[in-house]
Give the backbone structure.
Amino acid sequence: MSHSGSTGRRSGPVAVVVLAAGLSSRMGRTKQLILFKGKPLLRHVVDAAASSVADEIVIVLGHRADDVRDAIAPLPARARVVVHEDYGQGQASSLLAGLRASSDTAGAAVVVLGDQPQLDPSIVNAAIRHWRNLQPPVVRTLYRRTPGHPVVLDREIWPLIANEGDEGARRLMAERPDLVTDLEVNEAPPIDVDTPDEVATLDRAELLAATDEPLGPEFDNT
């Protein structure tokens, strides 16, 4: 359902919040450190955010935070890392950590996932323009009618997200569709890299292991 927008809603700088704190339990190893086309998966997402018009980038780390921070260094000038010690509580808690770490002047946060290395900065920009032009509480990206990321969250609804417990923004969007304006994109969604099979789908021939986590025999291309 589309939200018609309203006047007088705050604008201002936009922060990209990159969620990358998880355990990678379905992968069986730290997926943020897997190399794809010569860079860690997470670095692709950070670079896409840095290529957008966003004013700041907040990267939320948790599991193996020091190793992941080292792997994605040096960071773009307007990016910084926040370490979420309670990352085991789930993605919603990591989102709250990212929102709290965003600058006090941020008018909205663009939420992206750290396991989507195909993130397109032009779609991040389109989502930001949608928010600036229509001023809805939430902009949700629809890839051929499939909900995905980025999701833009106006600052005014951040307290509502905090009240939704361990489901966060997902539950809020489900319960309050009147808050949501959709950005329709005629493309397939970026792949969520959660499992070894999804790693292979990205580009099997170009995948390398992070230095301390070699790929298993299932990724042997010989």
